[in-house]
From TrEMBL, chain B:
A GO BP annotation: citrulline metabolic process
Protein name per Swiss-Prot or TrEMBL: N(G),N(G)-dimethylarginine dimethylaminohydrolase 1
Active site per UniProt: 174, 275
Keyword hit for Hydrolase: yes
Organism encoding this protein: Lonchura striata (white-rumped munia)
Gene from which this protein is expressed: DDAH1
Amino acid sequence: MTTEVGSETEVKKDSEQLGPDKAKDKPEEASETPGDQKSRETSSGEAQDSSVPAPTNQSSPSSQKKEKSSPESKGISRFLPPWLKKQKSYTLAEPKDEPKKKATGEEQVVEESESQALEGVAQPRKSLEEATENRQNAKAGDREKHSISSAEIQPSKEDGKETEVEEVAEKKEEKQEEKRETKEVQTAEIKIDNIPQKSPKKIKTVQCKVMLLDGTEYSCDLEKRARGQVLFDKVCEHLNLLEKDYFGLLFYENSEQKNWLDSSKEIKRQIRSLPWIFTFNVKFYPPDPSQLTEDITRYFLCLQLRQDIVSGRLPCSFVTHALLGSYTLQAELGDHDPEEHSSDYISEFQFAPNQTQEMEEKVAELHKTHRGLTPAQADSQFLENAKRLSMYGVDLHHAKDSEGVDIMLGVCANGLLIYKDRLRINRFAWPKILKISYKRSNFYIKVRPAELEQFESTIGFKLPNHRAAKRLWKVCVEHHTFFRLLSPEQPPKAKFLTLGSKFRYSGRTQAQTRQASNLIDRPAPYFERTSSKRVSRSLDGAPMGISDQSLVRDFSATGGQAAGDKIIDLEAAGRAKLKEGGREEDESPLKTPQLEFTQDGKNSFLQLTHIHPSSLPIHPVSSHLTYLSPVPEIDMLSDISEEDPFEEPLLTIPDISECSSMEQTSDHKKTGTASPINSLELRPLASRGSPAVEGKIRTNDYKSTELCVSFSFFRCLSFSFRSLLDEDGYITFPSLPDVCISFLPPGLQHYIPITSPSFIPSFLLVFVLLLSAFQSIPFSLTFSLPLALSLCYLEPKVTSFSSSSGNDLNDKAEEEEVEYEEEEAQQKISSLRVDGENIYVRHSNLMLEDLDKTQDDLLKHQASISELKRNFMESTPEPRPNEWEKRRITPLSLQTQGRHASRAEGPCTGVSDADKSSHETLDIVEEKKQAEFGIEETLVVDETNKGKMQVATDAGETCKVEHVSKKDSSSLPSDSSSSSSSSESEDEEVGEYHPHHRAIEEVIREEQEDEEDMKRKEHEENTQHVEAIPEGSKPVPVEHTQVTVEDLVHENTITVATEEKNLSEQIKQDVGEEKEEEQLKLNGDVSHVDIDVAPQLICCSEPPVVKTEMVTISDATQRTEISTKEIPIVQTETKTITYESSQLDGNAVGDTGVLVSAQTITSESISTTTTTHITKMVKGGVSETRIEKRIVITGDADIDHDEALAQAIKEAKEQHPDMSVTRVVVHKETELAEEDED
Amino acid sequence: MAGLGGGLAAFGRCTHAVVRALPESLCRQALRSVAGPEVDLARAEREHQLYVGVLRGKLGLQVLELPADESLPDCVFVEDVAVVCEETALLTRPGAPSRRKEVEAMKRVLESLNLNIVEMVDENATLDGGDVLFTGREFFVGLSKRTNQRGAEILADTFKDYAVSTVPVHDSLHLKSFCSMAGPNLIAIGSSEAAQKALKTMQQMSDHRYDKLTVPDDAAANCIYLNIPSKGHVLLHRAPEEYPESAKVFEKLKDHMLIPIANTELEKVDGSLTCCSVFINKASEL
């Protein structure tokens, strides 16, 4: 017993260390992968094993038993969402003396720390080692427990569905493994006593074959649990390839379906059959191969393209075949030599799927013209021509459109292409795509509304099957990330009962790989260009590798052997590790109470995760992510049904509540406003769950009852559980067969989602929960069914908000989606170009009511108003958990890079997007190239800078203005994001940025004190804000549209006359004026605003603003007051539309509140300026947050502003579902002179 | 032997032009979308001669002039019967049955130029060259009354190197009735709603960013861009007398050698500048 305890504390200690020290050490060792660790792990384990000659005497029968059961218990945990598993460590608090319990807990801790290490792409190597040691210690310390690795090693079940021969081989392996596991445990035990030992190691390996691009074959032995990355790295090392991010390993499933090996996951979970045969291929075709750094990379790309061409995947014309062929000859044979190259030398090569004599002649003819080109030059020429081919780098997928017409979907660097036969019938560039998702065999893209459309549309395609849909989805996610983002997205947080894929591309993006390859500093590696003769001839148009049956056969014949154990000496490493482990063990205190242990474990765990962001610039892991991130370990369900399970499902249950409570504390608002299903899920759980620190106390027998029941349940369903896991290792619950529905009365069949895929998990969870709460099986059974059904019923309701089509109740749980917040991508990119956007935070301490006295002419504009109104009226806030989650998940580094901008934009993103995209599509003349694009952007920034300067001076002492200097912007953004996050309580980085925020707040308070109380009250009441944006006065030859959602004030040009003689926009702190405004405001009808202040205005604003129109609509009465006056037109047309909801009146009257905080964030992008003003106040005990967004769109006349406004409102509603839009003011200034076209 | 057209630099290069004389039957029998004043044959011939003269004399192209065929009133519009890109020529199957025989003469002359010739034999396919816009990077094919999906597919099969995107064309005869290339990366486009809509479609379909040159008149958006080694960028556009506003727009193109050409008569029968010629770029050795 003492040893046990000791080891536990040991683990704890280790995991604590794990974080701080090690993570800091080598932040860049990102690619040091899981596989490595694993191999080390196993090897160390087995080293012990062999060092001690089979001490079976110590093994107790119980430990044996447990070993057997362990895979199963693992298995059941796989039913649960990964994050549930992850939470397990918290449950360790259970003050149970049962060794079994502890063992499990410990195991989980280890597992957790391991998964930490594994999951963080950028986990430093050292921490990996630590994890290994942890594990060793854990093993060593617990004599009654099986080793974790033993549980994980079991591969057989997964692979089991393959050919019989393989199965047999597998079984043998299994047995061997089991034996060794036993030994491991024992040796571990011994190890405690005899501390450091030298031992050779055994590693269980599988032979892999990789077909290389030059037609050769590379084989290596791989540790059985190795991740894809290990193999990939080995291959790249073999090839001497550094720019490896463009490449990947393919394996074939059912001969035709090619899949990319996910390097972050274990190979054996992806490829279910032996032998392991892969092909090394180009995964991302660089749009401009000349930007590759090394010739060797280009060479491999050439080889790939030659394959593509010969196989017909890359169609080309006769002439191009000949030309490319001639470059191939030049690269491989050198200059044409009439003597050496006799007439038929060429026919040994293959250049095209259907090679003709004529073509060969042409090739020979062209070959002569390439005299003098070096192989590298010839390759470059080859690529220069190949890259222009229309199908270069297009990954085609068969599909059907909504009408059942056969089409092809092509994924490429720029987006998604739709082909019908050979014709391109549509194209969706990445910036146009808002979301990609798939559900069953359907694949959906949600696209931005076109200019004249108001709403996003979702386009669905039918793929041959679910796997095809998922494959396409993954390819899309990867391509989008690789080509469009600066750094990979973090995988989304797992949601309860959303069993969707958390897949994200985890490699480097093109931007990153380019950056990395700039650092390549080695002499150009020598490599031999193998002649394509042999290779291409053998190809004959077929895809490489797998199609060669003899090879496969050959391999599987040797596979059994190959897969057998191999003993590898890794003495040195093993010894070192053992020593370390032993020493630490000695030092550790032995009697730390268990409860404390768990707490500590948790703390250290969190600590660990906090380290990541700062230490890992490239792959930051935000703290919250880490514990919510998926645990990759998910095993076959069939394992479970066989044997007697252990703790897992039960242990995880309290975690749910814990997790939810944590979630709630971290962002109460979010969970509060989250989708109904979320709250529904959480409530029962939370009610019974106790805080983690207290620990969950449960009796052992209790658990076993629950498990038995659930297992028998599984057993009866097991027939359909074969394919529960998809290739990611995620559970995909099958629907109950449709037969089940026939049990229901016909009338109910439509409403009761018994065939929903989430039904089973819901049912189980509910059942287990109830059972544990009431300890009555019949009771639980009775109630869990309706509850599960209601969960299933609600689920689609929720998800349907995010997917506008196919709200089939049955489809829900399989839906998986990526939300591409394209503006983010754009922000990131643009921030790269301009070195950060100009963002400033300022606070205007006087907030004025919006009165727009600048204009007094009103014009009728029924059409746009009615549209506006319509939009405004449909104010059902949509729950959009995804949005929030996305935000939370954003890695910190991204935020500092300009991601903040999109956040600050808030509701305005819609508008800015719309504008941006219209920019892209419309003003093509202006944006010829990326480079120019950049220039344009800076120009705009300059323009707006003017305004900001003014604002700065206006805001005076109190305001902080940062901008212009590009370097400032990088630091500033954090300010803005933090302030916005804190006030909206939407972000988690608050902690990190809090200092900033507080500073700002203080400033604000000071300012307020400076003001008269009265004024302040009024001002708080209405939370009016004044923004100064220079469009009114600036003779900019473009059109500005301001869309302000929520209370908004703008164009205080009136006050200019009284206060400042500078023309134009400034923030006014004119008491009198404000009062006046307030009065108007209180009346609740802004139509009174038509005060004629025009003369003043004209005096102060630079270009005589002439034709102006102002329309005010009052929501409460549904009546529109419009009056019109005309003034001679000079240069611009200004239009202002105010829309105000009646709600405001109620708020405005009577109540006085205390202003808690106020911030203004302004972000700017190419053509939009967004000012977000957030006020938080407390009114009669209720805190109220107001967000005012002002968007200035600068664009040409083609932009549909009404649509932009509608979009903005919509976005605002979506982003702040808990808030209501109370006021909308549109101010439109149009230059009347027609724009020039060129 | 530049592969794939050698990129943008080679766009508009040409050595030969195929034209065809006007038959007298054109005046009365030529297809026309809207009834209107009769074509003044003499004037039409004068304009056409001027057109050919510019190609031959001013630009130094080898102009191959096919004789008129009275049984083919529309035969002057050679563009519709052949699409030539690099060394491959696709002989089309014109949408108007009365014009199908025009292909024969074209086939002979293209064969004499040693081009790889692909004939559109599919009975279901129709394609007018006027619906084919080649930008140097890709093809856009207008799906109009004269051109169908199948025709576009065959075009795509013929020119495999290039993306072929389809653009619906509703209000006008051809895709090129309101647009054309005015430079290597420059699309001239009319201002009509239909034209702008088509442009947007094209922009959406393309991976490339084209510049656009918007001219007030749709008909004036049809111009001929050539890249003549000794002259540089050459643009044949409609005369200021016909479309003064549009001509002003063209005049802003400083890098181009501008050659205004009147086309008042053939316009009455839906003829535009590009309709009357097929350009071929033959490598010098041939």
